[in-house]
Amino acid sequence: MKNLLEIKSLNTYYGESHILRDVDLNVQTGEMVCLIGRNGVGKTTLLKSLIGLLRQKKGDIYLIGENINRKAPHQRARKGMAYVPQGREIIPYLSVEENLMLGMESLPGGLSKNKKIDPFIYDLFPILKDFLQRKGGDLSGGQQQQLAIARALLGKPKLLLLDEPTEGIQPNIVLDIENAINQIIKDTGIGVLLVEQHLHFVRQANRYYAMQRGGIVASGNTSELSQAVIDKFLSV
């Protein structure tokens, strides 16, 4: 496997507040990496820094071997990075089909050359096919999350960033999302960087990084995730 994403000594600020402190992290082709930690330690800030919504003050971000420090979010998306934010941010007044179509804007030629939704999305999330003409805002929280992930996948990313995809979602939908992510990794070999508190989903990942006070303080294989680490970084 090779590194899809490599982060070196990343430092990010909110105004004068120093949030990320010398973060080193990597995600390889075909693996899921989980970022864990209590609320407020910088996990979402890290994802926003990676996609370019926040600009780091120091450090480097490499995507497929290229330094992307100066690239705008849409340029990072076209290079192969997709982001599903906490809260999903689907467009409520657009239909499910229209929301899905937006995911193809990052493909070569954008929507002018990509007008057909790849049916693999319906294999992953069958409910979306039944609700294509329903407004995004009329879906349940779990259905909106499936829509948000499907929209990101339609851009055919090489790296998928997911910010707490199971938050506030019923258990059966959590399992559907877990299965879909595992299937897309198996089928396409993409890498996934996941922020998650749901222990069962955390254990689906190959590796974990634990954050505290804006820095990485522990890491390893999830198969070796100890109860002490779980209690320290996952307990509410």
Core attributes:
single chain; 236 residues; alpha/beta; four-stranded antiparallel beta sheet; 10 helices; 10 strands
Describe the structure.
Pfam families: ABC_tran. The protein has 236 residues and is α/β, with parallel strands linked by helices. The protein has a single domain, classed as P-loop containing nucleotide triphosphate hydrolases (Rossmann fold), CATH 3.40.50.300. It has ten helices and ten strands. The strands form two sheets. A six-stranded mixed sheet has the order 6-7-8-3-9-10, sandwiched between helices. Strands 2-1-4-5 form a four-stranded antiparallel sheet, with helices on one face. Helix 3 runs parallel beside helix 7. The longest helix has 18 residues. The relative contact order is 0.19. The mean pLDDT is 91.
Number of helices: 10
The sequence of SSEs as H and E is: EEEHEEHEHHHHHEHEHEEH
The number of distinct structural domains comes to: 1
Query: How much strand?
Result: 25-35%
The total strand number stands at 10
CATH-level-4 superfamily name: P-loop containing nucleotide triphosphate hydrolases
Q: What percentage of residues falls in helices of 4 or more residues?
A: 25-40%
Rounded to an integer in angstroms, the radius of gyration calculated over CA atoms is 17 Å
In CATH terms, what is the architecture? 3-Layer(aba) Sandwich
> What name is given to the CATH topology?
Rossmann fold
Level-1 CATH class name = Alpha Beta
